[in-house]
Write a structure and sequence with these properties.
The chain is an alpha/beta fold. It contains seven helices and seven strands. It has a five-stranded mixed beta sheet with strand order 4-3-5-6-7.
Length: 201
C-alpha cells in the first residue's frame, strides 16, 4: 500500500523515537490524526514550550526548569554519595522507589559502537569528585553489554580516587534498561549494592 506522503513523513518522525517500531509509529500517527485540531495544537504547543523552558542541570545533567535541578539544590539530600546513571529516565525510576536520598549524575548514554566514552558526561563527574566531599560512587548503569562496558570504564577511571565504588546488585535483569525495571527490584538492588570488583585486581 502506498501511503500519503505527509503520513509517511509523520511515521518516519515517530520511528526516530527510542523503542518505537514501524507498526507503533503507524498507530501513533493514525491516532493523532483522528484527534481534534485543538487537541493537536495543544499537544504541539506544549512540546514547544517544554523545549524552551526545560534544561539539563548544570551539576548533574538531570532535566530541570532551572539551571540547577531540584535534587541538586535540595539541602536535605546526602551530598557525599553520587549515583551514576545512563539517562534521565533512570533517575525517575530510582526516585520512584523512595529508597535513595543521595545525589545523581547522568552520563547521557552508554559506551557503544556508536557512542564513545568521550561523548559521555564523565569530565563533570570527575570535577564533582575533586571539588566535593564525595565518599561513595554508585554505578547504576544498565545491565546490558553497553552498561557493563560503561561501568568497567568508569571503575578504571574512578579507582584512582580514595572513594568507595559500588555497583547496583544483580537483581536487575541482564539485558534490561534500568528505566523498565520495577521499583521494588531497583530498591533492593540499591540496598544490596556491592563493591565494584575487577578480576585480576
Amino acid at each position: 500500500m502506498i501511503l500519503p506522503n505527509n503520513l509517511s513523513k509523520l511515521i518516519s518522525i515517530f520511528r526516530t523515537l527510542p523503542g518505537i517500531g514501524y507498526n507503533m509509529a503507524v498507530n501513533i500517527s493514525l491516532y493523532l490524526l483522528q484527534k481534534d485540531y485543538k487537541e493537536i495544537e495543544f499537544f504541539t504547543s506544549t512540546l514547544l514550550e517544554s523545549k524552551k523552558k526545560l534544561f539539563f542541570c548544570k551539576v548533574c545533567g538531570n532535566i530541570s526548569d532551572n539551571d540547577i535541578c531540584n535534587i541538586c539544590s535540595d539541602e536535605t539530600r546526602e551530598k557525599s554519595v553520587i549515583c551514576v546513571v545512563g539517562e534521565v529516565f533512570d533517575i525517575l525510576a530510582i526516585e520512584k522507589t523512595r529508597e535513595y536520598n543521595g545525589q545523581f549524575h547522568v552520563l547521557g548514554g552508554h559506551i557503544s559502537p556508536l557512542n564513545s566514552a568521550e561523548s559521555l558526561n564523565i569530565d563533570s563527574l570527575l570535577l564533582r569528585i575533586k571539588n566535593g566531599n564525595i565518599k561513595e560512587i554508585i554505578i547504576a548503569t544498565n545491565s546490558t553489554v553497553e552498561g557493563e562496558t560503561t561501568a568497567l570504564y568508569l571503575y578504571n577511571i574512578l579507582s584512582k580516587f580514595n572513594i568507595k565504588i559500588t555497583r547496583i546488585a544483580k537483581g536487575v535483569p541482564v539485558g534490561l534498561d534500568l528505566g523498565y525495571v520495577d521499583s521494588m527490584t531497583i530498591a533492593k538492588s540499591l540496598e544490596n549494592r556491592v563493591l565494584f570488583l575487577v578480576k585480576g585486581k
